[in-house]
Design brief:
Amidase signature (AS) enzymes, 2 domains, alpha+beta, about 40% helix
């Protein structure tokens, strides 16, 4: 599929029909999406209505907006008017339909975007693998025997497979950056609170953020401008870049380390990797805060219908609900003390380089990864490098290393709060210089996906 920019340009200038683009997308979903186990609902009627509206505006000589006729999907925790928000769970099957779209969806619609589907996720966004007890496990388009990552795995898989030019996910502790890395995409965790969260089912409000997936940095900038209502911050003319060391190098793929070192050399940065102190403690505190806030949110539902939850999610939520308040307060107090000295430490750097995941996508049959020399559950530990960055509230852009013929693997470009524009500018430079870029998956078009579960109509 074309990029969002290309589609919108064609529709706005009468070279493409939004209806035709939408029909092409819906046909591709019907023919090719099922085996990826990435779609939970196809919104055909709504999509056609929105596409007709865009074409009608063009016919009247009106500008439908910067996303004119661009099809997209959203993680199944965004409110969509007229349907119940499931958050990846059967528990809300009988919940009342949402009365309006989530604010982010409203902004995309106002810009001419066409919503075509809701997308698979870990139940209540609690996991890094998109292993969903109700819908099934989302597959990686680059190798369907492997995980797409999570918890926004359905959103990543659809863009990576070329079935839509962008999608929305949410990132609490890495739920956009992890699948972006494993599926070979751009994925943004913004400065905390920078993108609208109204109408998005929460997980841990201290950390939750909306995040887009795109196949190019140009599309990411376009999405940022639509969702924020203005341009990104200006980037300095000369960028100071540092590699993160310590725990960020302990559990990293050699290809990530080599790429980080090469980028540093290209930027004339000979400094030793920067070590952020107490990073393991920061991740532990993030675990505590996440568990407590998630457990509190679900306490009443757990008391009423605990057996309706995915067992792995249920047990983690129960454990969080039972944590003493004093532990939560201690973790939040540590966070408050921790952030200022770390921000001082990184103040002289515009971009920090770190791995996005510790490895390429693990297999669906054995969803484990190696952490500190021992095998660990991917569902819990794929976010080892993203969670501590969330804890600090910093913006982080996952970018795909250019790896033709190999499984995708990503880096994080991490910036100071409010400096997303710097990350976008640096990513554009890396894209232009050939360090990063999206690779079209070989496995998916070759038809190697037979036998997986399909979508719920």
């Amino acid at each position: 599929m074309r990029s969002a920019l290309e589609i919108a340009h064609g529709v706005r200038h009468g070279m493409l029909s939004a209806v035709a683009v939408t029909e092409q997308c819906l046909a591709a979903l019907e023919e090719r999406a099922g085996p990826l186990v990435a779609v939970t609902r196809v919104l055909s009627e709504r999509a056609r209505d929105e596409a007709r509206r865009v074409d009608a505006m063009v016919a009247r000589g009106e500008d439908p907006g910067p996303l004119a006729g661009v099809p997209y999907g959203v993680k199944d925790l965004f409110d969509v008017a007229g349907i119940a928000t499931s958050a990846g769970s059967a528990i809300f099957d009988d919940a009342p339909a949402a009365g309006r779209d989530a604010e982010a969806v409203e902004r995309l619609r106002a810009a001419g975007g066409v919503l075509v589907a809701t997308l698979n996720m870990d139940e209540f966004a609690y996991g890094f693998a998109t292993i969903n007890a109700r819908h099934g496990t989302t597959r990686n388009p680059h190798d369907p025997s492997r995980l797409a990552g999570g918890s926004s795995g359905g959103s990543a898989a659809m863009v990576a497979a070329g079935l839509m030019p962008f999608s929305l996910g949410s990132d609490t502790n890495g739920s956009v950056r992890v699948p972006a890395s494993l599926c070979g995409l751009y994925g943004l965790k913004p400065t905390h609170g920078a993108l609208p969260l109204e109408g998005v089912f929460p997980f841990a409000e201290s950390f939750d953020d909306v995040g887009p997936f795109t196949g190019s940095i140009a599309d990411m900038v376009l999405l940022w401008e639509v969702l924020t209502g203005g341009p990104a911050s200006a980037a300095p003319s000369s960028l100071k870049v540092a590699r993160l060391g310590g725990r960020f190098r302990d559990n990293a793929d050699p290809a990530q380390l080599a790429a980080m070192d090469s980028i540093a050399r290209a930027m004339d940065s000979a400094a030793a990797p920067l070590v952020i102190p107490d990073i393991a403690r920061a991740r532990s505190a993030a675990f505590v805060i996440t568990a407590c806030e998630g457990g509190r949110l679900h306490r009443e539902t757990l008391a009423r219908a605990a057996m309706s939850y995915d067992p792995q999610v249920r047990d983690r939520l129960l454990a969080g609900a039972l944590l003493p308040e004093a532990i939560y307060e201690e973790a939040q107090a540590f966070r408050a003390r921790y952030k200022a000295p770390v921000l001082d430490l990184i103040a002289d750097h515009d971009v920090l380089l770190a791995p996005a995941t510790p490895c390429t996508a693990p297999s669906v049959a054995d969803p484990r990864i190696e952490i500190d020399g021992a095998m660990s559950a991917a569902r819990a530990d794929l976010g080892i490098h993203t969670q501590a960055i969330t804890f600090l509230g910093l913006p982080s852009l996952a970018v795909p290393l250019r790896r033709p013929g190999q499984l995708p693997l990503g880096l994080q470009l991490i910036g100071r709060p409010g400096c997303e524009g710097t990350l976008f500018a640096f990513a554009k430079r890396l894209e232009d210089e050939g360090f990063i870029g999206v690779t079209v998956p070989e496995a998916f078009p070759a038809g190697a996906l037979a036998g997986s579960r399909g979508i719920d109509a």
